[in-house]
DNA sequence: CATTAGCCATACCGGTCGGTATACTTCAAG
DNA sequence: CTTGAAGTATACCGACCGGTATGGCTAATG
């Protein structure tokens, strides 16, 4: 399924540039020509490496997803126990936002732009959210907390709600409040 | 600021058609020509009534926002007391989704597509979320619940998280779980 | 009864879109 | 020493974008 791209130096630069532009300005309004000029690369090089804009979009979403999951796992691993790990996920959210994710969730945004029903980004987005949901449920179960699945959904809603409302709703303490609510759920 | 549009029969049809298309397929990929042909109208009529695509977009967002706020207020008014009213907001969310809002929040989606920093849709989106936040805070205060503002943020996160995760995350019980969490918050 | 607002039909505008074609250079590896 | 992959530069393609122009028809209104 996933075309294994050879990550040449130019390809790396292209993906970095595209990722930044896609996240900041949106996918549709960012043209291939713009990416090329911003990356200091010819349009042909983009198509030699990635084949199509859609492939580039998917590479952007996949890589961003990988980076985010790794960040979450790092925060979970650093927590002393399962209860603390649940809260730590919200610390990772604060870090994620501080490190540039101030325009909401890339998956949610992509979903809004790529409306074609069969677009592969839909499956990736659903997979990411289901992954976090399962991660929450596992941690709650490991902590011996009852109704793990139901509370996991609550945590997911708080997490995603905080990410989007910090931007769209301009609620500056959204992440803090979400973390506090999470702390109460695992208490 | 808001151009008072004369809602002729054609204008009504245009706005209805555009609203449906914008919400289902997204704003950018839906062209003015498509709206015209789907509404059985000439492109010129669209520009005679609305002036620009941007004005049409704003009319779409504003009207949708009005409908939604009215729905929420109706549910609040029907509740026996302030505590029940908070929960009733989540009932209105279930109704809203059942009546067609199965592609997340139009404001959040618009935010993802219209990245221009000064676009008026940003202000409208922020206003909508701040309105719901204030509505929650007022109800909590009226019910004599302490820490009204903090809990209001929690409710907002649950609400928005549920709306987006029911779609993107394919969490089918998102709204139910959010309502249950709300019930616990006001208990 | 003339005027005008509302609408339709068609054609057009410059600009941008994703994607392709051709030809030349650079450089590392067999 | 040659070959091939990676890259540059430029020009081009058809399609579509938001928006405009011209002109004619209809119906309600002063």
Task: Describe the fold and architecture.
- Two copies of one chain form a homodimer.
- By secondary structure, chain A is mainly α.
- Helices cover 74% and strands 0% of the residues of chain A.
- The first copy, chain A, has nine helices and no strands.
- In chain A, helix 8 (148-165) packs antiparallel against helix 9.
- The model of chain A has no long low-confidence stretch (mean pLDDT 95).
- The interface between A and B is large, with 43 and 43 residues.
- Chain A binds a DNA duplex (30 and 30 nucleotides) through residues 8-10, 31-33, 41-45, 47-49, 52-53.
Q: Could you outline the blueprint of secondary structure elements for this entry?
A:
The structure is a homodimer of 187-residue chains.
Chain A lengths: L8 H17 L6 H8 L3 H8 L2 H26 L3 H17 L7 H8 L6 H23 L5 H18 L8 H13 L1
Helix pairs in contact in A: 1-2, 1-4, 4-5, 4-7, 5-7, 5-9, 6-7, 7-8, 8-9
The first copy, chain A, binds a DNA duplex (30 and 30 nucleotides) through helix 3.
